[in-house]
Amino acid sequence: MAATHLSGYKPLDEKCLGDIAIQFTDLCLGEKLYEKLLINAENVEQTGHERILKFYERYFEYYEINNTIKKLGVDYQQNTNIENLKKYLKGFLEDYT
Fold it and tell me: How far apart are CA 4 and CA 17, in angstroms?
């Protein structure tokens, strides 16, 4: 809403007085709810702009992903304890919480 004020407009109030109607909606498909902060993270590189960083995440080969999905599917079908599945994912994905 700050952009409307900076443009010289006012949002509509309860009495429909103002210039622009503001409608709050849900997230769009693919829209992020939050951004991951990379403060003091490894694999971060500075760019030409002081506030923009590059982050290099681990690259997974197709066979690694495929084998992991198969293992999770088999374990799930065999009713393996959900905590064991979570431990496996934590070992595979560094940021999994």
Answer: 14
